[in-house]
Amino acid sequence: MKKLLILVLIVWACQGPEVAPPAPVYPIPSERQLAWHELEYYGFVHFNMNTFSDMEWGMGDEDPADFNPTALDTRQWAKVAKEAGMKGIIITAKHHDGFCLWPSAFTEHSVKNSPWKDGKGDLIQELREACDEFGLKMGIYYSPWDRNHADYGTPEYITYMRNQLKELLTNYGEIFEVWFDGANGGTGYYGGANENRYVDKLTYYDWPNTYALVRELQPGAVMFSDGGPDVRWVGNEDGYAYETTWSNLMRDSVYAGMPEYPEKYAAGQENGTHWVPAEADVSIRPGWYYHEYEDHKVKTLPQLLDIYYNSIGRNAALLINFPVDRRGLIHEKDVEQILKLSTKIQEDFAVDLAQKAKLSASNERGRGFEVKQVLHKDKNKYWAAEDGVIHNEILIQFPKKQSINRFMAQEHIALGQRVKGFTLEVKTADGWELIHRGTTIGAKRILRFEDVATDALRFTITDAKASPTLSRIGVYRAPALLIEPILKRDKSGAVTLNVPGSNVDIYYTLDGSDPGINSPKYQGPFMLDQAVQIRAVSHDPATGQLSEILVQDLDKPKAKWKVIHTDANAEKAIDEDPNTFWQSNGNELTVDLAEVMTLYGFTYLPPQNRFMRGVINRYAFQSSLDGRTWTDRALGEFSNIYNNPIEQTIKFNGVEARYIRLKALGTTDGQRASFAEIGVITRDN
């Protein structure tokens, strides 16, 4: 026994004395923020009055009697989220139209006056019970804007808002996140006033006292808005974070709805004063609410996988939205796609090849901070360098050559985000070859690259705010994924199908059936001069694998269309190229369709460049048979178009027309209207 004790003491002595951990590099996350970081991936549910009015942003004048789901099942929502690997669900308790999914004592505009469950239902309570059953966290989305309430814009409304927050945050158990939307003020019903109301977004809501109320009622909840205070918006609705994403933010310079926020603050700042990490929100369909015409526009597996790697893989959390349908269910196609993503993520990270590798570091802080700590799943174990040692190399040597295509690294963020620059190299017969040169790491960074066979990797931290820390390193080989074809059609109607970088065959159909290897094979560009739905699939003849199916609606080509304007650049609005646009000098676009058509609607695509200008948000669409006498066919708004600049589809009853005109009644920035593309709908479906 004495010999064993002596041996233990000798081993302990050889390891060296205990070393103090690195000093924090401020700002650092709070305990509630650290708990939020652990969630990483959770679901959004947009289900409200808009589901039944077929809108994105309701005006507030909707009748509660219209809210009547036929088979609402929050257990189905929770089951889908759990099977998808999500850790929680955030529900739109009240959207901009003011309709409440719980029987609020402070308004009649709620489920208590709907036919659903004879006015005795409480959707928030049902979701609470479903989340508890499936082991999920629950969060609350609450829109500060209310287009229904007569007092919006006055101090009385703030009392109303806080009374409702008290209901939501005291009656439904533990809430992990309170989500405040940045959309505030504009046209609305406002108790029958039907007018424009704008507020000072910085001061109107008295955010310090509103935040204090949330802290009092739900001390463990993080609060989300453009600038936090706990979690910030990633600055887009594509679900993508940035190549350089800091969790640090100049928080006191930001407020909800700030116009310059996406360009100046969304990526965070190296010298940010507060820890306000990014949350990437995105819908599984083009819109946030359910629209039947988007049933074939659910995001494909490759699209969802790109979102995963560009959000969670870039130091952000991922919030994927389900637009629950009018039955009150997550649609079957949405379920199918999100479960495909779950399966693929599990496949991509099934085996961590680093676990059987030999790791060495150019510098180690001492006992308890060795490089081997990065192989532990314990978040409290981490590698750290000595104070002042910024440049560090970590060598990963495999027992034999491995085929790899993924690399993952995580900082020990409890002590702050530090890394400013890194490289990843692979050992080849000719020496070290650079795979990636990057900047930030943060909570998690995942690199994707082409398959490479090697027996060693070198990960080098080239720059940092202080001596770096790493809590985890992983190396993987993800199975290849065959992507669906990419379709382009030019103005003449010529269709091109392509799968970049792949030696595959493409098959397609035009009759609505799903394509397979017995369908027509794509041989080269072909003409489609009628409105039709095309479906196409990629096929790898070497493996027999089929991709997901591309489904795209094409209308009549624009070969003979003419924009009636003296500016030749106006033709960019009908050139079938989404990357070009025309900014008008008269806030309207008039087109000669060259023939009389029966129209059932129109489409508008805003500019797709990063710094969009002149995006139309209120419109009038007119038609004419002779180009002189015009009739209004649709008036309205393109809700949320600035944050979600997708193609807008507006439908109406069939009308004969040769000329069309889209007039901008308002733009998101007050500049002259811009048009990337305008189209018509000639199929009544």
**What general outline do the C-alpha atoms trace?**
globular
What Rg is obtained from the alpha carbons, in whole angstroms? 28 Å
Number of strands: 34
In angstroms, what separates the terminal alpha carbons? 85 Å
Q: What is the number of helices?
A: 10
* Poorly predicted parts: 4-14
CATH superfamily of the largest domain: Glycosidases
Structure, described:
The protein is α+β, with helices and mostly antiparallel strands and 685 residues long. The chain has four domains: 31-348, TIM Barrel (Alpha-Beta Barrel); 353-476, Jelly Rolls (Sandwich), CATH 2.60.120; 486-554; 562-681, Galactose-binding domain-like (Jelly Rolls). The chain has ten helices and 34 strands. A hairpin with a 2-residue loop joins strand 16 (419-428) and strand 17. Helix 4 (74-83) runs parallel beside helix 5 (123-133) and helix 6 (155-170) packs parallel to helix 7. The radius of gyration is 28 Å and the shape is globular. Residues 538-683 form the F5/8 type C domain. One of its GO terms (molecular function) is alpha-L-fucosidase activity.
Explain briefly what this protein structure is.
The protein has 685 residues and is an alpha+beta fold. The protein has ten helices and 34 strands.
Keywords for this entry:
single chain; 685 residues; alpha+beta; TIM Barrel; Jelly Rolls; 8-stranded parallel barrel; 6-stranded antiparallel sheet; 10 helices; 34 strands; globular; Glyco_hydro_29_N
